[in-house]
Amino acid sequence: MDITKGREVLPKNVKPLHYDLILEPDLETFEYEGEVVIELDVVEDTTSISLNTLDLTIHETKIVSGSKLISSTPELHYSEDTQTMKITFQETLPAGSTATLTQKFSGRLNDNMAGFYRSSYKSEDGTNKYLATTQMEPTDARRAFPCFDEPALKAEFTITLVADKDLTCLSNMDEASEKEVDSKMTGGGKKKAVTFNKTPLMSTYLLAFIVGELKMIETNAFRVPVRVYATPDRDIEHGRFSMELGARTLEFYEKTFNSEFPLPKMDMVAIPDFSAGAMENWGLITYRVVDLLFDDKTSGASTKQRVAEVVQHELAHQWFGNLVTMDFWDGLWLNEGFATWMSWYSCNTFYPEWKVWQGYVTDNLQSALALDGLRSSHPIEVPVKRADEINQIFDAISYSKGSCVLRMISKYLGEETFMEGIRRYLKKHAFGNTQTGDLWSALSDASGKDVEKVMDIWTKNVGYPVVTVTEDEKASAIHIKQNRFLRTADVKPDDDKTLYPVFLGLRTKDGVDEEVTLNDREGNFKIKDLDFFKVNADHSGIYRTSYTPERLTKLGKAAKDGLLTVEDRAGMIADAGALAASGYQKTSGVLSLLQGFDTEPEYVVWEELITRVASIRTAWIFQDEKIKDALKAFQRDLVSEKSHKLGWEFQESDGHIEQQFKTLLFNSAAMAGDERTQNAAFEMFNKFKNGDRSAIHPNLRSGVYGIVLSNGGAEEYDVILKEYRSAKTSDERNTALRAVGRAKSSELIKRSLAMALSDEVKSQDIYLPLAGLRAHREGIVALWEWMQENWETLVKKLPPGLTMLSSVVALCTNGFASKEQMKEVETFFEKKSTKGFDQSLKQSLDAIRAKQGWLSRDGEDVEKWLKDRGFF
Ligand code: BES
Ligand code: ZN
Fold it and tell me: Whole-angstrom Cα distance, residue 10 to residue 411?
């Protein structure tokens, strides 16, 4: 292995040009046979070749230079640590020549959802059926076949799949030829060999191949065919929404980027076992079933939006990631940040009535600020050396903060100029690899501004500032100072050295001034009329703003007077909540602010209001019942009237946002013990229990289950469990499974936990029964006990290289809120390997620390405020 720029990478003596790969999977024994012929460009005189493999058995290795056999018995040295095989031979391959490396190998279709793996579904007669599929990103192509498994080592690929004649074979490209062959697998017999056309230059992590029994629908609405595939147990018509949106999105991206989609087809496949949400394999996108198939009769508005987001995200990757690829994993944000930003951009064009940019402020912006407010966060561009570190950076920093950085620069340059920069970037680097600097150059080119100068700091450093605003009335000016923001409120001088270029986005009665920037630690800024101003218009900047309590009250009034946008109002509430949670302000002040928003008309603002109440209730979850009840009463007081006004009946004419608005308020009121909504929930549930499937509207399903389980017992539990077992769509089943954990009795908690590890729940869904348990203290405690008791099983079931163990650790630990609990978690992991989830564990501990600090600072403050206002 070479260390270049601190990365562990393959030596540069040879470079792959073309792979000829044949794979023959057996869906009964789960073994597969493979042969790969790799054409190499020899860069330096060499007597060795190193490449990646993992869990493969190599049967034969042959090296040929031109037409001359160099070795058919080279020495093979395997390093488990770096997952590389070094092949050494006597004769030298001369620089400037080409050579071919041939390897015959076999592997196993694993059930870890990585590399070439098997996925199962039930056939009509109830037996298990299988398909073979792949998930290569980030570093599991090496599990499928020997390869140079790094994003910058792009090559062309010719793939052949050998399978039973009645199975569907798919890969990145369209089919070139099919012929009959003798099977190499045990038993022999005749099979078909499907060879696909040669791919363009591409990275290994984007390869895909699928063999199985699949149904398909197709559209010709786009220049090349767009298809959706699913296993026979699904209704393929549920793929229509994604298929049509897919065609529309490809067309839109081609135009917007002025760059043709270079492949001859676009297939999108619903895979029954899938570790992420979806994967952007070039021309063959794979999805978790719920993220591709959508049935508007049984699913609600938020599910539709999620499917739309995922489809557009993966299609955006066809350019950002697939056509132009980061040169190494530390540039992951160039993939994920872009795909995230683009999916919002196109969604806003297709569905302007969804107003997705408003929701961006409560969604991506808050996820980014929440994670990046922890000391255990990391810079957007983070050095990753090793395979096992890479999975951990698929997090809110790469996705959400990455996309926030793009949103910030796009607002600063103007969207049109930004897009022009993007077109230049794609054109210049098509089929190549880039670093962050290449993006800044293209944007500088297009705008004439020094983009690197203002943006570099945001991607190279961890964290973001809190901007404190004070006022000087006499001078008619505001004073602004920036400091590092930490949720744990323990900023040390060393943490606070980075000075960010802060785009102030000053909103006054005259409009927004996008030009003013704070480049130093602090500065004064003139404002004509101090009566009204707000910093960070629309919250396009990545920072929090701390105002004086007086100014915050004035802003609350300005909100009512219509002087602030939806983004401003939601963002301001989020900032106030976060600043209170971390000691920059008093929580009582936030409670008053929230209370003042009871006449707020907009959905997104309510969403943030309710989130902030929830975050107080979550931190207070281990406190006295009487205070918890008072907080519940506060929530009830805040949301009930609005919920009654909006109602919980859905009409055809209800808009997308209106539907979600009703849902949000209904759930929030009923969960806070509001009688009318709670009764309504039980009424719907009882009808549903008696067989009326239409009694619960899809938008309310999750809320109603949650409400009846939080207040009910075994009877409700069994009805919902039955729904999990028998419902037709993944969305309905997931909603049921996510709800079971809401039940609080120790008996039912045990059952929910047992479900998580039973055969009834696929590994991909293990987080679902766990999630509901986080809603109550009994559940949080039980999760932790359960995780400790089952640790060995969990590690075996969820290999640390993948993302799932990370999520389970987070789910089972970060519900805690005290020092003692934190200590317990630390003690448990002290002597264990935390490889593969150390980041998530550190973040959990930080989150507990933050809550603990909040409680000790503001426990009394909150109690007094609630008492003074008669909540207990
Ligand atoms: N490239 C990722 C999939 C991925 C995630 C691969 C983690 C390896 C490790 C894909 O583009 C993605 O980001 N999927 C998201 C959905 C998206 C809408 C945020 C996902 O899986 O949730
Ligand atoms: Zn992605």
Answer: 40
